[in-house]
Write a structure and sequence with these properties.
heterodimer, A: 150 residues, Rossmann fold, 25% helix, 24% strand, B: 512 residues, alpha+beta, Cytochrome-c3 Hydrogenase, chain B, four-stranded mixed beta sheet, three-stranded antiparallel beta sheet, 17 strands, 16% strand
Chain lengths: 150, 512
């Protein structure tokens, strides 16, 4: 079995857009099985493809918009984003673009899950999460933990 | 007569850029290029130790970090009169070329040619072929560019430890020698990309394309074989000209190039006295002549920028970057307006090729001027030249593996003084101007290629290059201005990681 990757996306500087980075920081404090690797992709855009190499399973963590109520956590499959080519909260060439790109360059493709939270909003140059998004962080970490057992 | 204003977002994470265009009877009558994000790198560098610039400036950009690093180290070497060994120059050149090749391939086939698949062109004779080649994620060239372009910067990682944002160039050289292993690995990466480029992009060998010396030879070559016409460069040319790209997007006729890639045979001296492999110069659009380039002729204006005002233009050594946001004035951007000899100029691969005297680009320019098609063609032609030059550079390194890669400077610290580093980044002329006082940076001015091209109006009210390239353009459908997209993309706007914040629908998002 190949490695399992957790890849977090986000921009700390833009309010709730920093959700993925915040989750990454908490994930780093936990002990993980040897085959699990954590990556903070930040705003790497297309360069984040690197983080999806050499793994059989990948969990992508990002902020979401227009999926539900603020603070709500969602577990999605790539096909759930298929009709959302331009996700408002995406970073750089966002996750939908990466999912298309991975189809081109990776064979076989890793099993991908997307864990996200519906955010209150992206606030340019306002570091820090809103209360609802902040409350979703530990629950998200718990969910990811359950998805990647020993 | 109807008048309307349209707003075009070119948003991204690392430096937002918008266009505001005023249309009269569907013709562009005014254009404002708006840099909507203040970066502040020049302030960040103030009062820091000189060598901090080698870590901080590569973070200016996620695509041209190698170019920023190179400019930063050349400025420090200028101040300290520090020379570097030939192998270090070759390694720096190799890495800078790799970065440019990646940028050019992505810009061309992931962004520029995707527009050829626009529904507007459904009745064009080559539309089906364009879809098969350029449609995002489905077309063979788009897929190939996505796969192939990502490996070339691994060469930088071999020598620099990482890409992007690497800091492996230091005053006196680079951090790693060219070992046999690094040379062989680099050659392997280069060979793979070159094979794909020859097969998919140009439909012939590099040398055959580079042997074409005139417009006539090129157009004869284009239709001589099916493989040429059906190659990416062939399809781009034939369809690009069908839709009139060779008749639009001229902009200013004046061009500058800082010259590209220091000459390793001239390693004994230090920048800026070192010769270049590709020549520097100023193409005077009034006379058509190429004049020697002198950085002392550069000034930056802030009359229409959100900076504390000063009169006229200032040379970067006297430059001032004090943010002063004035949203309700006639100022409209965070970009300054650089001018050369008080003229509006453009920079980029077209300017570089013309000033270097590349015969094919020069011949095409004489025939039709500096249009959107030629600007993009020059970028692709440059890839062929650079793949060729990278191979030569690796062969030169292989002749003396593990040659000296660093001459430690006599003094540990960079002395007080002033210096500049000028390089050719993927998007054109990039310069860093540095002054050091009492051991720390007292002034740091960066003039990027996009600052030249995306310049706002200056103290005399003259539009910048991108703005002027759109003036007078007829737009068929203002709600879907695909023509504007072609022109903007031909300039290769520095949109590092594009974000498309589609808000009210009144704004129109254009990818880089």
């Amino acid at each position: 079995m190949g490695a399992r990757h957790i890849v977090c996306f986000g921009n700390d500087l833009h309010g709730d857009d920093g959700f993925g980075s915040r989750v990454y920081a908490l994930l780093c404090q936990l002990t993980w099985p040897k085959d699990v690797e954590l990556f903070n992709a930040g705003i790497a855009g297309l360069n984040a493809l690197r983080f999806l190499e050499g793994c059989s399973q990948a969990i992508l963590v990002d902020a979401l918009a227009n999926f539900g109520n603020a603070g709500e956590i969602f577990l999605l499959r790539p096909e759930d984003l298929a009709d959302r080519p331009e996700q408002p909260a995406s970073h750089g060439l966002g996750i939908p673009y990466l999912l298309e790109a991975i189809k081109v360059i990776r064979e076989p493709q890793p099993d991908i899950l997307i864990v996200g939270v519906e955010i209150t909003g992206v606030k340019p140059f306002s570091p820090g999460l809103s209360d609802k998004t902040e409350r979703a962080v530990p629950k998200t970490v718990q969910l990811i933990r359950c998805l990647l057992p020993e | 007569m109807t008048r309307r204003i349209i707003q075009i977002d070119l948003n991204r994470v690392e430096g937002d850029l918008d266009f505001q265009l005023e249309l009269q009877d569907n013709k562009v009558v005014d254009a404002r290029c708006i840099g909507s994000l203040y970066r502040g790198f020049e302030q960040i560098l103030m009062t820091r130790k000189p060598k901090d610039s080698l870590v901080i400036t590569p973070r200016i950009c996620g695509i041209c970090g190698t170019a920023q690093l190179n400019a930063a180290v050349l400025a420090l070497e200028h101040i300290g009169h520090i020379s570097v060994p030939p192998a270090a120059i070759r390694i720096r050149n190799l890495c800078l070329m790799a970065e440019t090749v990646q940028s050019d391939l992505r810009q061309s086939f992931m962004f520029f040619t995707a527009d050829f698949c626009h529904a507007k062109y459904i009745h064009q004779p080559l539309y089906e072929k364009a879809l098969a080649a350029f449609l995002p994620f489905k077309g063979r060239v788009h897929r190939g560019a996505l796969e192939q372009s990502r490996h070339i910067v691994e060469i930088i990682a071999l020598f620099g430890g990482q890409w992007p944002h690497s800091s492996y160039m230091l005053p006196g050289g680079v951090t790693t020698p060219a070992s046999n292993r690094n040379i062989i690995d680099s050659l392997s990466i280069l060979n793979k990309l070159t094979r794909w480029f020859e097969q998919a992009i140009i439909g012939t060998e590099l040398d055959s394309l580079l042997a074409l010396q005139s417009a006539e030879e090129f157009f004869t070559w284009l239709t001589a074989k099916e493989a040429h016409a059906d190659s990416a460069i062939g399809l781009f040319t034939l369809m690009g000209r069908d839709i009139g790209l060779h008749n639009m997007g001229f902009g200013t006729p004046h061009m500058i190039s800082y010259g590209a890639y220091d000459d390793p045979d001239d390693a004994g001296t230090f920048a800026p006295h070192r010769k270049h492999l590709f020549r520097s110069g100023f193409l005077n659009g009034d006379t058509g002549g190429i004049e020697p380039f002198d950085q002392a002729e550069i000034t930056e204006h802030v009359r229409y920028s959100w900076f504390q005002p000063y009169q006229g233009g200032r040379h970067p050594f006297k430059g001032q970057t004090i943010p002063d946001y004035q949203p309700h004035s006639d100022r409209y951007t965070w970009c300054k307006a650089p001018r050369y000899q008080n003229k509006v100029v453009q920079t980029g691969p077209l300017a570089d090729a013309l000033i270097d005297g590349e015969p094919l680009i020069h011949s095409l320019y004489l025939a039709e001027g500096g249009n959107a098609w030629l600007r993009q063609f020059a970028r692709l032609h440059r890839t062929a030249r650079l793949l060729h030059k990278m191979r030569k550079t690796l062969q030169e390194l292989a002749a003396h593996p593990n040659a000296t890669h660093m001459i430690p400077p006599g003094k540990k610290e960079i002395p007080d003084g002033e210096g500049f580093g000028l390089v050719t980044a993927a998007r054109g002329a990039l310069g860093h101007w540095v002054q050091i006082t009492d051991g720390v940076i007292s002034r740091y001015q960066v003039v990027t290629p996009t600052a030249w091209n995306a310049s706002p109006k200056d103290s005399e009210g003259r539009h910048g290059h991108w703005e002027s390239s759109l003036l007078g353009l007829a737009v068929e459908d203002p709600d879907d201005p695909v023509e504007i997209g072609h022109i903007i993309r031909s300039h290769d706007p520095c949109l590092v990681c594009t974000v498309h914040l589609l808000d009210t629908g009144k704004r129109i998002t254009v990818w880089p």
